[in-house]
Amino acid sequence: MSETYVIGDIHGQYDKLVHLLKRGNLIDPHLNWRAGTTNLYFLGDFFDRGSDGVSSLELIMRLQRQAAEVGGKISALLGNHDALMLSVARFGYSKTSRIGGLLVESWHRNGGRMTDLQRLKDTHIEWIQKLPGMALVGDRLLVHADAFLLYTSYGRSIESVNRTFARLLTGNDEDEWERLLTEFSERMAFFDDVDMGINGAQVAAEFLRIYGGLQVVHGHTPICKIIRQPAEMITKPLVYANGLVINIDHGLYLGGPGFAYKLPTWIESIAAFSKKPGKRQ
Ligand SMILES: [Mn+2]
Q1: Pairwise CA distance, residues 178 & 175, whole Å
Q2: Cys-Cys with 204: which of 21, 56, 71, 241 at CB 3.0–4.6 Å?
């Protein structure tokens, strides 16, 4: 099987996206695909908080075509900010937000960029509408969010979650949209919560039992916020929940340099994990 790289939340940070693709040898200095038959997965959240979501999307769409020509593959999953972008494009000026005012205004206050909304074309909308919620890649379960209730409330298999998302994203049911955006704010489902009696590794194991795979890979929750270090220091993923979960959210919009993470082989994965006895997971 070809190598697979995964990249976390971009959030409109076009320049950093270009840099990390170059550093990972995935594109050449002219921004053309140079990684042959490599598989590359983006885990969603292309928009908001940075100024250039649409440019990021356009680069990815172009690379996707180039990669396909040489037997490579670029795929992407849906993030909450991508769903939010679609909902703003669709209902932004007709719908009021939960806290009052137009939806477009509350989105703008929360990091949405008007330039992205103005530049968003039908081709971008159609591309986002087709993004799946989850994917299984060589026994790794890829999702955008470290969320359990969100995904399980939309289906009990990868196919059914993706089917439900696809239906919803092309539909006009405002209540369904609102529910999706609300539930998509869930995070940290695979962490222990002593007060609630929740064991994160058990939640992860149950998640994997339902959808398949041996390890969850997600973005959505910046690693720097979890380990309380400056985003600038974050250059590798965070493996936790007894090794069952990998967080790859590099916190680009918080100042992180970002990284493209090559999924290790299982041998590499086990070796790395067993080197850290006593390390709190
Ligand atoms: Mn997110």
Answers
A1: 5
A2: 241
